Each structure stands twice: as structure tokens, then as C-alpha cells.
Amino acid sequence: MSATPLLPFRLSPPAVGRVDLLVVAGEHSGDEHAARMVRELRASQPGLAVAALGGPQLAAAGAQLLHDLTASSVVGLVEVLKNYSFFRALFEETLRWIAEHRPRAVCFVDYPGLNLRLAAALRERGLSVKGGGKIRTLYYISPQIWAWKAKRRFTMARDLDALATIFPFEPKCYADTTLPVEFVGHPFVADDYAAPVRYDPTGPVLLLPGSRVQAVGRIFPALLAGFRQFGRRDAVVLYPSEAIRAQIEAMLARAGPSVDQSVSLRRTGDPIAASAVLTSSGTMSMHCALAAIPGAIAYRANPLTYLLGRMLVQIEHLGIANLLLREPMYPEFIQGAATSAALASQLRACLEDAGRIARTADQAARLRALLRVPASGTAAGWLARWVA
Predict the structure, then answer these.
(1) What global pTM score does this model have?
(2) Which CATH number, 3.10.180.10, 3.20.20.150, 3.40.50.2000, 3.40.50.300, labels domain 197-371?
């Protein structure tokens, strides 16, 4: 067997000589949600020593950033394989650091591909409580076991001490396990959360094709065709990265100058008001639903991927708002159903049907009520009970 590859660096020791909590958040959204939790936790326990494999927001919240994991995160099998040696080395270095510095607890935030493997390794090496050691292993933001890989709940119960979820239906998904699971509210409805979108009936149409290059290549042409057939109002396309911006600009150029004049691009994160939205099924669709922006979901995948997904994923809706409400707040147009005529018709209803607009506002209010922090407390309160 070949030796484990070495990182070009070692993770720094704890800045204050000890660490009470290690947070592992591998994506930008996880960094953001974890930072809010850590900020609130340190406000109530200012002496708590927190270290993190995360990103700049966790650092700003007062955690000692050991490595910017958000800068290293990749999506897709090919990218994972290309970077396998690095991630294997980082995995082993993280376990070495934990074994040497022995935090009282490790809180994994989302990112199950890495985090569930780390939790299992801590048990196997006898470091965690579940492995006979003293380190508590906690998990914030459940993997979507209700959509696929449902059997992971049993390995999670084997490896973790507790789980906090952001959707109210998720604790029931673990009812047949021994894992303590608690709903702690969704970060998007927190009092201090700055929503990136809001509803304005005079605003432009939003086109939200997603954040992954392959998906954007399939979904954006459908959104653009629907907007073009509708033919009224301007549109704004939100993009999360320069790679996505370049891809969208290329597609707009192929569509012709008349389209280019009515469609503008804006970086995700800058607050924007909108009158309607055509969106993929990702995180931004949830933001728009909570903001009561009327809209519809369009989704196109590789045909083989779609067929496999239909066999593996057992859910009634793609959009999480639709799943939560158990009704199509955002009608879904999947694969061949995402035609220009269908999407143009949706825009027409979103902008001209008073009943549709009022119904969306009512659904948004119900959605916010479902997701608000329960009486049992926030994610930070949950974490404080386990770190104490």
C-alpha cells in the first residue's frame, strides 16, 4: 500500500493552547450558517475556544481558521478524482490534528461527503464518544436522506452523538434510529439574516439557472426561451461565480443583441427586488419563495442522470418549498416539459394574475411559519448544550 500523500502544510495548533470546539464546514453556505451559530454561541460563552476548517465567515465570527475548506471544495466526480490526493492528505491531517489536540466536540456542518467519513474515522480510531473516546461528534444540517441514501441514517446513528436539522419534517426521518435529532429552525428566517431578494411588483424578472456549469448549460436556455416568448419586462440573471458569468454571457451572445439589451447580469449576494422568477431547484428558489416572489421551477438534466434519479430519488417535488408546503408553490417543469410556451405562460400568470400573487404571499407566510426557530431554541442553543 502506498503512503498517504503529504499536504504542503500542517494545520496550526490551537491559538490559546486548547480547543473546545472544532467546526468543519466545507462549502460557502455551510460557512455562512456555521458562522451565525458560532457567533451566537461565543456571545453567550466568550471564553469558548473555537477552531474551524471552514471559510472567511467562520473566521470573522471568531473561530481560529485552520484551513479555508471553502476554497478547496469541488463538485462532481471528475473534480473529486482529480483532487483525490489532496483531499486524502487533508483528511489524514485533520484526524492527526484532532488526535493531538482533542477538542471537547466536533461539529460537522452539512458537506456529508467529507463529514460523515470523518465522523466514522473518529469512531474507528477510538477518539469519539461513539468509539470509546471523549470527543463528542455533532452534526448541523442533515444530509437529504429523505431524498436519497436513506440508509445513511443508521451509520449516522452509529457515529454521531446528536443532529440538528433545519427542516421540521427531518427528525421523523430518524425515528427508527437511536440518534437524538432536533429541529432548530432554518437560518433563512433568522432575525439577523439579510435576504438576497425581495418582492417588488414593478421589478424585473429573475432568471436563476443555478451554480453548476453543466446544469446551467441545460437550464439557462430554457429560462431564456421562456422569458423571450413572454416578451415584456427586463430580466436579471444572478450568477455565483465568474465561470458561470462567462458561460451565461456566451449563451446570451448566441441568442442575439435584442436579447442582450433586455437581460442584465448581477453577482449573487447583492440584494435585488424582483416581480417574478424562473429558477432551478436550488437554494435561491428557497430565498425567492420566502420573499413571496411568484415563480416557477425549470429543471433539465442529462437524460441518463434523470432516469437514474427517478429510480433513486423518491420525492414528490424537486423544490424544497413545494416539499415543505406539500403543494406546488412553484410549479415544476422538468426535462421536456420546460418549454418556452409553458414558462412564458407562468410568467404571465405571475405578473398578471392577482389570485396567483395573493396565493404566493400566503404560501410564503406559511413557509416562514414552518421554518421559524422552535421554542426549544436555536442552533447555537443546541450546540451549547452539547459542548457544555
Answers:
(1) 0.85
(2) 3.40.50.2000
